Amino acid sequence: MNAGPTFQCLLVACILFLDAVESNSPKSDQGCVGASSGVPGIPGTPGHNGLPGRDGLQGEKGSDGMKGTKGDKGDKGAIGKTGPKGNVGANGQMGEKGIKGENGNDHSINWKQCTWKREDHKDTGLIQECVFKKRHSSTALKVAYAANMRVVCSSGRCCGRWYITFNGVECSGPTEIDGVLLLQNTVDNPARHRQIEGFCENIPSGLIRIAVHVGNCYGYGSSDRHTGWKSVSRIMIEEYPQSQK
């Protein structure tokens, strides 16, 4: 008699019985004696996904990456709007006012020239006078005298001195304005055109009588002197800012 199917039926019944017992009571070491392994059951339905886990710990800071290459230069931006107008600056200091001329403006030069043409045989005394209007007390006067001058002596030495005065007094600021002509033992008549000039300071403003005189040299007596022989003589006067010492 073939016992295969019967045995299998008994085995399945035993397994079902044991599953029922395990679900309601503690496990028992007892089982179907002499039973063999059954056929694998059908896979059950997959369970639901579990809840998300907690965030893990923050990792350490990584090292800096390599420096990237410089990008291309962009186009120049548009020009901005003009800003508001600034405040007006303070006025600068006024410069020093120039010397005012007789008929000119403040920057013209105050000057004068007196000329004449005659021969003067005076050995001593006044040759010519020129009146000048000085505008400022702080300025200096430049005076130049040009003429034909000569001195003659038949023996020994002879000397003549031509000098400038201001209101009858020689200049003392800084010193006299003069020229001398020395001659020794000659019968010649050395008539020559000559010029003397210089600056005089510390002269007040107003009308100044500037004059040319002829006289003796220091240490010498009188001699034969002539002034202005066959030539134009002149006195030239200019007003200048006084020098800074």
Would you give an account of this structure?
- There is one protein chain.
- The chain is mainly β.
- Strands 1, 3, 7, 9 and 10 form a five-stranded antiparallel β-sheet that branches. Strands 2, 4, 5, 6 and 8 form a five-stranded antiparallel β-sheet that branches.
- It is rod-shaped and about 195 Å long.
- About 11% of the residues have low confidence.
Key words describing this protein structure:
Jelly Rolls, 8% helix, rod-shaped, 245 residues, 1 helix, mainly beta
Number of helices: 1
Shape by Cα distribution? rod-shaped
Largest sheet descriptor: 5 strands, antiparallel
**What percentage of amino acids are in beta strands?**
25-35%
In total, the number of strands is 10
- Percentage of residues assigned to helices: under 10%
Overall mean pLDDT: 78
Q: N-to-C terminal Cα separation, in Å?
A: 160 Å
In the CATH hierarchy, what is the class of the domain at 123-241?
Mainly Beta
CATH architectural label of the domain at 123-241: Sandwich
* Unreliably modeled segments: 25-35, 92-106
Structural class assignment: mainly beta
The whole-angstrom Rg is: 67 Å
**CATH topology (fold) name of the domain at 123-241:** Jelly Rolls
Order of helices and strands: HEEEEEEEEEE
In short:
The protein has 245 residues and is mostly beta strands. The chain has a domain of 119 residues: Sandwich (Jelly Rolls).
